[in-house]
Amino acid sequence: MSNFIETWTGEAQAHECDALGHLNMRHYLYKAQEARQMFIIRLGLHSAFQSGHPSTVKFMDAHIQYKAESRPGQLLRIETGILDMRKSGMTLLHAIYHIGGQVSATIIENIDHVYLPTGASFPWPARVVKAAENHHVDMPNFAAPRSLDPWGESRVPNQTQLDHWGIKPIGRGVFQPSEADIFGRIMAPAALGRASDCVAHYKAGWPEAHKFGQEDHNIMGVLLECRFICHRPMSAGQPFIFYSGVKSANPRTRRLIHNMIDPINGQSLATMDAVAALLDLTARKITPADPAVLKELQNHAIADLSA
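RESULT FIELD:
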């Protein structure tokens, strides 16, 4: 782990935690966003995230595993290393630790160096390539993907494909200026957060959802692993409609596919392949689905569904 460097230090703030009492999934990515920026600055692109600079680094996609809850006040730190470096791209690994050394989450993300006036990929400067030599790392066992392929090709489903699958919308909204970065682009954590806001409305994927906040609010859905891909640039004022479907289910987990669609042209803005489960909020442990619920999930499953 010696080629990793510490890129972020802080804590899980109370306002960043959700109804489950732990850090919401979007805030892991917000903290990793800062870690990415610090890492790139340390490699020599000192102004890449400042207004007026002609080039920057663009988020492409991320594979995230949530391994240990981060409750309010939990002290956290992030270490970052390079899994792969290409002419203009890079695959980073962010390991998010509790201050005592327990791994809370891992994020494998693909980024691209881009020239802002055109949006075209832009080769890394020689000084960055040289500085990166000391930070190449191998995939540690604790970060190895469990259920999802971080490098699989996306089918980028559009509205027509979703209609073919019979997928129905569960959420909608419009991105706000507060969700954009200094260059006017909607930040990946903000887009991921919209999934968190919408998914509880998906009753076919969460038949238990009618109990949330009612007679059995001790059991709620929790995300274990996901792959999140941004397919098109978004800016403030961008409307979206959020679609979800069940791909598969077993007694302990369910695999859900989410698609964020532009309602104006029917094209995909972002997709998410997610492995989720039920969390017992008293025991703070994963609990299996009721057999009747599992059968219902499997009846709704569409094996061909993809992100």
